[in-house]
Structure formats: structure tokens, C-alpha cells
Amino acid sequence: MPLFKTIRVNDFTKVCIWKIEESLEELHTNISLNQRSLDRLEAMKSEIHQKGFLSIRHLLAHEGYSDADLHYDEFGKPHLKDGNFISITHSGHYTGIIISQKAPVGIDIEKQREKILRIAHKFTPLEEYRTIANTDALIRKLTIVWGGKESLYKIYGKKKLLFLHHIYIEDFAFADEKTTGEIRFEGEFDNYDIHFLEFDDYTCVYAFQ
Question: In terms of residue numbers, what domain contains 184?
């Protein structure tokens, strides 16, 4: 069982990360899916997406939940039947969930890629990072910023937010492994703690209040 990492964020919040190493057949083992989930799985053309879908169900099982305990609202935001808050992510060979008993949470895993340099202007003011001369460091930094904004977007859970104009990430040092973020939308300002970690050229970012 490749449970890659478990992080106890606080007394009410937990992060679990899975490294996908199994075959599809192995991931089907001991997992029961309802008809809607079976339909979603069969509609996926990519095997890695199918594996991600199934590995998330293993993460749920690890935390005492079944596929039937998870449902999605009209905006595609996941919810748990017992009222606890959840966020889900999948990138490449890693999946992750964050669950909280107290407040909405968000999580994002991203592969560190040079592509982010080309799209950075769409989600963050690039002048904030002009002092970073090393390209690899800039890729790492931008990936954390993207992950933080994606995590806050998932917390908000609706489709109106713009990464560039409504979601802000406070600058940080890599060694801090944390920063803060803010959603500024329609006259409201909501602040969040953001933590991050890096492994195998991936970045995981999670946010909570």
C-alpha cells in the first residue's frame, strides 16, 4: 500500500498523499464503487487518470470513508456525507486528499514543469519574482504560487474567481515551507494559512483557515 505521506496539520485537519505504483487491477482490489463512479471511471480514456481516481478511493478508505460517502456539488466541489470538509488532487503519479472537521480546506499537487514560465503572467504579477535568477528556482516558486491559488480556488468552490485578480499569495522563502493567502472578492477578504512541500519534482500545497 503506497501511502506516500501523512501530515497531521492540526488536531482537526489531515493530509494524505498516495504514490501510484500499482496496476489498475491492484487498485480495484477492496474498493467498491457506486454506479456514478463506475460510469466516470469507464469514461476516462487515460489509464493514469483511472489510477488516480482509484487511488483517491484508497485514500478515502484509509481515512474510514467509502466511495458512497463522497459526492460533488453543482460546481464540482467534493463533499463528505458526515459534514467534514475535503479537497482532492491528482497529478501524474501522485494523488492527495486533505480532510478537516472544522473548516473548508484545499489541496493541489503539481509536477514542476518549465511550461509554468509561459503561463505565469496569467495567474501572478511576474515582476514580484524578477530577483530570482535561477530558472529552476523560479519554476519551483511559481509552482508553489499556482498550487496556493488553486488550493484557495478549491476552498471557494465556485467558478467566478480569477487567479490573477482575486487570489493573492504572500511572498515566502523556500525554507519556510509555508506562507499565507487571501481571497479578495466582492468586498470580502478571507485569509488562509498555506503550507507546501516538494518531492520527486512535484509540489504539494494545501490551504486551511
Answer: 108-208
pLDDT single digits (tens) 2-54: 899 999 999 999 999 999 999 999 999 999 999 999 999 999 999 999 999 99
Chain center to CA of 25: 25
Same domain, 34 and 118: no
pLDDT digits (tens, 9 = 90+) for 179-199: 999 999 888 899 999 999 999
What's the distance, CA 113 to chain centroid? 17
Distance of CA 16 to the CA centre of its chain: 11
Domain end point (choices 69, 103, 137):
103
CA atoms of 125 and 148, how far apart (whole Å):
15
5: left (phi over 0), alpha (psi -120 to 50) or beta: beta
Same domain, 88 and 141: no
CB atoms within 10 A of CB 7: 15
Whether the Cβ atoms of residue 88 and residue 107 lie closer than 8 Å to each other: yes
**Strand segments (E) across 92-173:** 94-100, 106-111, 167-169
